[in-house]
Specification:
With 281 residues, the protein is of the alpha+beta class. The chain folds into two domains: 11-119, 2,3-Dihydroxybiphenyl 1,2-Dioxygenase, domain 1, CATH 3.10.180; 133-261, 2,3-Dihydroxybiphenyl 1,2-Dioxygenase, domain 1 (Roll). Helix content is 16%, strand content 35%. An eight-stranded mixed β-sheet has the order 2-3-4-1-5-8-7-6, covered by helices on one side. Strands 10-11-12-9-13-16-15-14 form an eight-stranded mixed β-sheet, covered by helices on one side. Strand 11 and strand 12 form a beta hairpin. The longest helix is centred in the first third of the chain and has 12 residues, at 25-36. The protein starts with 10 loop residues before the first strand and ends in a 40-residue tail after the last strand.
Length: 281
């Protein structure tokens, strides 16, 4: 099935949204601005629920949103040349329009993950790596029964490079060079009513990044060989992953004669997502 755009999805930029309960919005804004080396914009929205995290150089690609119900999570905004065409293509692939507004729309994927289509305003320059890490990935955590359909949906909608992970439950959608956020599609181990999403940071040194995040108020949820699950001061969970912050890929292996000592290809296998509200601001 075509995405309606051929090999070009019309996606010109991507925003990763940090969705957190509105009562904890100040803590979320301060923490995520600190870890991404950005400053918080003026608030927007009827209740001041939206801010953009503004980098010193390059174009913004992270926003923070206060949600009125639930624990929050994450979602993607796709900045496109033609919002109506993108919404039409997404709908033809199985998405549902949740809300249509003046120039932008909120949609739900077949497995229930919210995302937005917004106008592209010429964003083109990716912000620099900050202190050896970069927020560069939204992980969509998918119930097993919905996994195949959901992977196919995102493959066709984005038309990005589609890469199988080292295990069947991992699938990566790698955007064209220059786009700031990629997608990890992860099959969960147990069923749940709908998909959810969380944020991942690519880290040159997970330990060093984790220490910095703890100084800023985050706590460790779980440590694994190649990733660490963290909780931010607003209660949201996210992952620090051992990937190259410049490329998003796995670090190059150091040759060794002992296969047991070679780096293991991975994405990460811990579900940390929660139901997320999505809007655009």
């Amino acid at each position: 099935m075509s995405n309606g755009f051929g090999t070009d999805s019309g996606i010109r930029w991507t925003y990763a949204f940090v969705d957190r309960p509105v009562g904890d919005l100040g803590a979320a804004q301060a923490f995520w601005a600190a870890v991404t080396g950005t400053r918080v914009s003026e608030t927007r929205g009827e209740q001041g629920e939206f801010v953009t995290l503004l980098p010193g150089t390059g174009d913004a690609c992270v926003k923070v949103q206060g949600v009125a119900s639930g624990d929050g999570g994450a979602h993607l905004d796709f900045a496109v040349e033609d919002v109506d065409a993108f919404v039409g293509a997404a709908s033809a692939l199985g998405a549902t329009v949740v809300g249509a507004y003046d120039g932008w729309s909120v949609l739900r994927s077949p497995a229930g993950q919210l995302f937005c289509a917004v106008p592209w305003h010429g964003e083109a320059v990716r912000p620099a790596v900050v202190d050896g890490s970069r927020l560069d990935q939204v992980s969509i955590d998918i119930p097993p029964a919905a996994h195949g359909t959901e992977v196919a949906f995102w493959e066709r909608l984005t038309a990005w490079d589609s890469l199988a992970g080292s295990l069947p439950e991992f699938h990566v959608l790698r955007p064209p060079a220059g786009l700031p956020v990629r997608i990890l599609l992860q099959r969960l181990g147990t069923e749940r009513p709908a998909a959810s999403a969380h944020l991942d940071l690519a880290c040159a040194d997970i330990g060093a990044t984790g220490a910095r995040h703890r100084q800023l108020g985050a706590t460790v949820v779980a440590r694994h060989a190649h990733w660490t699950v963290m909780r931010d001061p607003a209660g949201g969970t996210y992952c620090l992953t051992g990937r190259d912050p410049e490329t998003g890929g796995l670090p190059k292996a150091t040759p060794t004669a002992d296969p047991a000592q070679r780096p293991i290809p991975y994405a990460h296998a811990t579900s940390v997502g929660a139901a997320s509200g999505a809007a655009s601001g």
